[in-house]
Amino acid sequence: MIRRLGAEAPCQEIRIADASYPAPFTGGLEYSAPARGTWNIVHTGMLIPEAHEIFVCAQGCLRGVVLTAAEMGVPERFSTVAVRENNVTDGDLEDSLIEGVSDILEKLPQKPPAVLVYTSCIHHFMGADLDHIYKTLRERFPEIDFTDCYMNPIMRKSGLTPDQLMRRQLYSLLHGAPRRERTLLVAGGDFMTDDAGDLVTQLRQNGWEILEIQRTHTYDEYQTLAGAALCMTNQPGAIPGGRLLEDRFGMPHLHLPVSFDYDEIAANWKRLGEAAGIPVPDSASEIEKCEAALSRAKASIGDAPVEIDYTVTSRPLSLARMLLSHGFRVTKVYLDGISGEERDDFLALQKTCPDLLLSPTVDPVMRVRPRETEETTLAVGQKAAYFTGTDRFVNLVENGGFWGYHAVHGMAEMMREAWETPKDAKSLIQIKGWGCSSCL
Q1: If we measure between CA atoms, which residue out of 214, 286, 289, 234 comes closest to residue 399?
Q2: Contact 242, 231 (CB under 8 A)
Q3: Domain boundaries, the chain
Q4: Edge-first strand listing for the sheet containing 78-83
Q5: What is the largest CA-CA distance in the chain?
Q6: Which class for 371: exposed (0-12), middle (13-18), buried (19 or more C-beta within 10 A)?
Q7: Of the given ranges (92-101, 147-156, 294-303, 429-438), which has the lowest mean pLDDT?
Q8: Structure pTM?
Q9: Which of 137, 261, 397, 404 has the most CB atoms lying inside 10 A of its own CB?
Q10: pLDDT tens-digit profile of 194-230?
Q11: Comparing 49-169 with 180-276, is the CATH topology the same?
């Protein structure tokens, strides 16, 4: 039944005590809030230095990815091939892709060392022979490395999502390299690990080098990543990439997720320390630093309501749990599902903070709900800022390079600064791929 949505329409918002794990909300028609800071597959693919992206899909679908490349300021690294109705009816999807990509490469002023070809839904609906496509392209252009990427929203709910595939394919072009002892590759993240954090500091103090795709500037530098002695991922979407690196190059893969729990952080450090053969940071001094930052933030923010969304960190419930345990008045968390890494946080919050609200971001009713709160609210994340209408918000996406104890005191400092320095949320959250251009 079609019904008109109004501000009074019921939303699926629910107390955490009444929510179910891992899916607290019923699926259906979805809404996308205009908070655009999270990265998409165009942004992530651009992390491979000197690579050229070619998207092959229908004209209407190309609009968004073309705008992304334009907003990033890298149109010279981006091309498109439009799929038209006659390509489907005539059965020449494969030929149109091969000839379109070939034409683009022949006309470029300089051939790139690598090309990322993004096929779309129609190629999979129609059973296009992708093996034949890539075999032919590699024969025509042996000097270019090709890899398969996917702009395929129909894959979003089953198997690996396009985001997971893109993070994995970041490393599919590696050829192999001599093993570099005492090197750790942090794989699959959008942002470079913060040099000021305990991960980089501890590694460097013990003679280790941190490798990341964001730290490479040429395709040759990128190829050296295959020689890392150890691989680490810290967000769920990066795990397939870590497994690929372990399978192909034999580098042990550790998944050590971002966390805001001291015990989990210490356990992650213990695993990393044992694998790398280095001492772990002094937990007492690190926790003292975290507690001091949290105290400063609490003194500034006081009892103001705090709302968190899942785009700011892969662990929104862990963040909420930590803040609530330190006296912050967290009233709501915006999320659409609960990852396995957050199960313990979810169960703990059900007992200790049963009235904490969970609110979906994709429920169509969210489009028409009021954009203001009764009290001045601190939003942690862009979607929380959009839904609350506040000008006091933490402008951070996808962990922002935080890990370890640095995630706790770094987030606390950002919260304090956000509360003390209001900013124009509307102008900031509409910027696509927040922080992306600084990584190119």
Answers
A1: 234
A2: yes
A3: 14-34+283-439, 49-169, 180-276
A4: 78-83, 52-58, 114-120, 145-151
A5: 68
A6: exposed
A7: 147-156
A8: 0.94
A9: 404
A10: 999 999 999 999 999 999 999 999 999 999 999 999 9
A11: yes
Q: Which helix (H) or strand (E) holds 27?
A: none
Note whether 210 and 187 are within 8 A (CB): no
Between 3.40.190.10, 3.40.50.1980, 3.40.50.620, 1.10.357.140, what CATH number should domain 49-169 receive?
3.40.50.1980
Task: Specify whether the CB–CB gap between 410 and 401 falls below 8 A.
Answer: no
Q: What is the average per-residue pLDDT within 243-251? A: 97
Does residue 301 surpass a pLDDT of 60?
A: yes
Tell me if the bond preceding 22 is cis, omega within 30° of 0. yes
Q: pLDDT value at position 3? A: 58
Local confidence band at 161 (pLDDT 50, 70, 90 cut-offs): confident
- The amino acid that residue 48 corresponds to is I
Q: Are 189 and 398 in contact (CB under 8 A)?
A: yes
- Superfamily the domain 180-276 falls into: Nitrogenase molybdenum iron protein domain (3.40.50.1980)
Residue pair 386/34 in contact by the 8 Å Cβ criterion? yes
Alpha-carbon distance of 44 to 161, in angstroms, equals: 14
Task: Summarize the confidence of residues 261-290 as an average pLDDT.
Answer: 98
Angle between helices 283-301 and 405-420 (to 10 degrees): 20
Tokens of 116: 């990322």
Alpha-carbon gap, residue 111 to 43, rounded angstroms: 21
Q: Work out the pLDDT band at 418, boundaries 50, 70, 90.
A: very high
Average pLDDT value for the chain: 94
Output the pLDDT for position 430: 92
Is residue 157 predicted with pLDDT exceeding 70?
A: no
Write down the residue that tokens 């989990």 correspond to.
264
